[in-house]
Write a structure and sequence with these properties.
The protein is of the alpha/beta class and about 240 residues long. It is built from six helices and twelve strands. Helix content is about 35%, strand content about 30%.
């Protein structure tokens, strides 16, 4: 991080989205920030303009694939260990301080990164839990299920491919640390936060904003919100999103 001049890091849904981020970019600051589920295409256009005027870099704080366990999953899929992925199932039960929809944004990004395929349609159901059924190109399907809990209880990925199956637990291996009634899982090695900072530094050094990546996940979640309200599948628009 010492290579980044005056960074702005917002690991939580910004209350002044996107104006505060655009102002920081125009002031020449590089920004790593959480993406709210209500982000629009116009928001990302404004951020792109801010990057250009301030010669700055914007990177979404998508920490999901920075988890050590899931980074290994991404590497295995890219190496062709399970062939061509045709189904991804994600189940997450844990804290969601900004709400289930905000929690869905980085998970959708993870599914897109793992499959490498755009999402054309989404069907969402919202209740005590949030379930997203995602239709990719080429007949590939994914399901994301999210439930809120006081502490992490499940973080599972199941990827089926043309030549194999990969199952990953985002909570293991780890060391369980108990303080009173609170139990935390601590990874021994490069932490999720440290890996996220490293990827931020790489993007800044390369002068590579990741606005398109941020936009596609956010637009898919926006379509999912419409689907939940209408109680029917919704087609995903192909703009900045993908």
């Amino acid at each position: 991080m010492s290579a980044i001049d005056n960074p702005l890091i917002l690991l939580g849904v910004p209350t002044d989205w996107p104006d505060g981020i655009v102002a920081a970019l125009r002031a020449g600051r590089n920004v790593l920030a959480t993406i709210p589920p209500a982000a629009t295409e116009d928001d990302f256009r404004a951020i792109a303009d801010g990057c250009g005027s301030g010669h700055s870099v914007f990177v979404p704080a998508f920490a999901e694939l920075c988890r050590p366990q899931l980074a290994a999953v991404r590497d295995a899929v890219r190496a062709g260990r399970i062939g061509l992925p045709w189904n991804v199932q994600v189940t997450v039960v844990g804290p969601a301080p900004d709400g289930l929809w905000a929690r869905a944004v980085p998970l959708v990004d993870a599914v897109l990164e793992l499959t490498g395929l755009p999402i054309s349609r989404v069907y969402a159901q919202e209740g005590s839990s949030l379930v997203l059924a995602l239709d990719h190109d080429r007949g590939v399907g994914s399901t994301v299920s999210i439930s809120a809990a006081e502490r992490p209880m499940a973080h599972a990925y199941r990827l089926s491919g043309s030549s194999g199956l990969l199952v990953a637990d985002g909570l293991r291996p780890a060391v369980a640390v108990r303080v009173g009634d609170r139990v935390d899982s601590v990874w021994e090695g490069v932490s999720t936060e440290e890996q996220l900072r490293r990827e931020f530094a790489v993007a800044v050094a390369a002068g590579r904003p990741e606005i398109g990546r941020a936009g596609r996940a956010s637009m898919i979640v926006a379509a999912a919100i419409r689907s939940a309200r209408q109680r029917q599948p919704v087609e995903v628009e192909r703009g900045t999103a993908q």
